[in-house]
Amino acid sequence: MANLDLSDFLILKEIYKTRSITASVKNVGLSQPAISIRLGNLRNYFSDPLFVKTPEGMMPTPLMQTLIAPIDQLLDLLGPNRGQLVPFTPESSLRRFHLGLSHVAQMVLLPPLLSILESSAPRIQVDSTDLNDQTALAMAQGEIDIAIGYAAELNTGFYQQRLFTEHYACIARKQHPRLANDSSLSTARLLKEEYLSLVAPGTGHSLLDKHLHAEGITRSIKTRVSSFLGLEQIIVATDLLAIVPARLANTLAQGGRIRAFEIPFPMPAYEVRQYWHERYHHDPANRWLRQIIFNTFIDLPPVESAVEDTGTQINRN
């Protein structure tokens, strides 16, 4: 194999993106056997396997990891568009976007976002994955287009944009035996109760535990979970309390089974942002979605005070 051509680089890019020879057929325009033969030639050319079969698919070798960014640049410059970015047409696009979302964002922000996308870009698809300590790597590798939440580790090589400020609230089931008749939550009562706590590395929730520790406040943690997705069911079925972002507390309280209380001592606020990798800063599709997210969530108003007898929003007393 004396020379490479653009189709060879397209094969490598598509296998890298899809983690599959079979899945790469659609965009490469060759049959699966033909792609396999070309991949074998490329392995000989680079004296490296380039991709290795794993339970998660065809995973790139370290050499392939170093090649993908230059391959992207080469295809952008020399491909059919001659270095011109392809315009994005949301009305007809079949693009699949991959979002990295905190648990709270999946429960509170994703529903309204999907509703907007359904009307403005009805044929696009959206995949959501949890924010974690591998989010930065996934974004650098093109596996996540945009992340939303609080992600302190997304610094070098990433852009970020503030959306809104969030704070914390405390929730309990509406018929909690020690809180059912209370309109507010005292510090003494808060410290006597048992709690459900979220363990989620790489998210803003780690700020909560750091702040409580710094203030010398120790909660009795009875249960730890890695996701808030079953939070309402657990709180309703037990006498546990949980400290959660205020917008999530408000969302859960609207169902009528949960009460939300203002925390009776100062708690830090934090900024919810959207993040994207510098490789996709000028990508038209990524730019379009970032603008939709910004327009939808910029400066969301604080959670409003509840009417005292409804118990459906955060009680401020």
From TrEMBL:
<feature type="domain" description="HTH lysR-type">
    <location>
        <begin position="4"/>
        <end position="61"/>
    </location>
</feature>
<dbReference type="InterPro" id="IPR036390">
    <property type="entry name" value="WH_DNA-bd_sf"/>
</dbReference>
<dbReference type="GO" id="GO:0003677">
    <property type="term" value="F:DNA binding"/>
</dbReference>
<dbReference type="Pfam" id="PF03466">
    <property type="entry name" value="LysR_substrate"/>
</dbReference>
<keyword id="KW-0804">Transcription</keyword>
<keyword id="KW-0805">Transcription regulation</keyword>
<comment type="similarity">
    <text>Belongs to the LysR transcriptional regulatory family.</text>
</comment>
<dbReference type="InterPro" id="IPR050389">
    <property type="entry name" value="LysR-type_TF"/>
</dbReference>
<dbReference type="InterPro" id="IPR036388">
    <property type="entry name" value="WH-like_DNA-bd_sf"/>
</dbReference>
<protein>
    <submittedName>
        <fullName>DNA-binding transcriptional LysR family regulator</fullName>
    </submittedName>
</protein>
<keyword id="KW-0238">DNA-binding</keyword>
<dbReference type="Pfam" id="PF00126">
    <property type="entry name" value="HTH_1"/>
</dbReference>
<dbReference type="GO" id="GO:0003700">
    <property type="term" value="F:DNA-binding transcription factor activity"/>
</dbReference>
<dbReference type="InterPro" id="IPR000847">
    <property type="entry name" value="LysR_HTH_N"/>
</dbReference>
<dbReference type="InterPro" id="IPR005119">
    <property type="entry name" value="LysR_subst-bd"/>
</dbReference>
